[in-house]
Structure to design on (299 residues):
């Protein structure tokens, strides 16, 4: 029996694959190890693990594959990586534990065993070069403060920054202030002391997109956010010598794919902006979960 946990900054999909191929699944809040509150993440993990044990009726979990945003290998016993491995080992004794960054989940879901450039565009963002087995080059996301270009949180951060400085058109600012509690102290509290600041900033993205076709400022804001992702996260991978070698070996340009609810919701805008640089997306998926299940079932 295999447990697959695929998590972004906002939500996590938990999938149990039975020995007979049967599938049971549920969702929790995201397990974000880069910008989320660590105590909140481990509380979420603990309650979800208990739910898995209840759902399996004491059947043995043989393997746990966890893909999470902001998760990096570390030998430090107090690092999130080691604490997470210990927590899962205690809950699922005897299971093989595999902990990976969410980029590998995206690459496996998009390309299986083929090489390509895999992108994540959800609350956060990232991109990597995948050789069909492993990630051989990636951009450093930087999180919603230092990076995450193209993602929903970055779009929200830019918008809220403009809003508190009075740079947003008055009609737009009024609409947002009527819908949300946007007084300055509350914004600062949520961004600097909230349990999930990236999710807080990302929640403004759908309303920003609602103005895309009617307001030039919002149109430019959305386009520039995607343009920054193309320029800072994808083009640098295409120019890397590892990518050039893979293209030479394959005899064609590497495919590009994207995964994430934000990418899926904005796929026409994303593809239009990417087209300015001669980049086309082979596929844009809302979630990697379904294809990850196929990948692990085949494996």
């Amino acid at each position: 029996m295999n447990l697959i946990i695929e998590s972004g900054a906002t939500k996590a999909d938990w999938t149990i694959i039975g020995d007979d191929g049967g599938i049971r699944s549920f969702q929790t809040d995201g397990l974000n190890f880069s910008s989320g509150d660590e105590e909140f993440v481990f509380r979420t993990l603990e309650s979800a693990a208990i739910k898995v044990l209840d759902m399996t009726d004491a059947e043995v979990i043989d393997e746990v594959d966890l893909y999470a945003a902001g998760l990096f290998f570390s030998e430090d016993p107090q690092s999130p990586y080691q604490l997470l491995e210990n927590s899962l080992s205690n809950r699922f004794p005897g299971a093989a534990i595999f902990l990976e960054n969410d980029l590998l989940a995206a690459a496996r879901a998009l390309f299986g065993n083929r090489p390509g450039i895999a992108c994540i565009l959800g609350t956060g963002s990232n991109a990597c070069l995948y050789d069909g087995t492993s990630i051989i080059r990636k951009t450093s996301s930087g999180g919603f403060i230092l990076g995450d270009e193209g993602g929903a949180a970055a779009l929200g951060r830019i918008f809220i920054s403009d809003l508190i400085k009075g740079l947003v058109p008055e009609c737009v600012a009024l609409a947002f202030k009527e819908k949300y509690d946007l007084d300055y102290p509350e914004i600062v509290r949520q961004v600097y002391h909230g349990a999930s600041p990236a999710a807080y900033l990302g929640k403004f993205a759908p309303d920003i997109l609602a103005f895309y076709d009617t307001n030039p400022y919002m149109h430019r804001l959305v386009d520039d956010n995607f343009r920054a992702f193309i320029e800072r996260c994808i083009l640098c991978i295409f120019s890397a010598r590892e990518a050039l070698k893979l293209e030479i070996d394959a005899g064609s340009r590497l495919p590009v794919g994207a995964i994430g609810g934000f990418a899926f919701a904005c796929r026409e805008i994303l593809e239009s902006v990417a087209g300015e640089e001669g980049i086309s997306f082979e596929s844009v998926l809302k979630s990697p979960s379904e294809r990850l299940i196929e990948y692990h079932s085949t494996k």
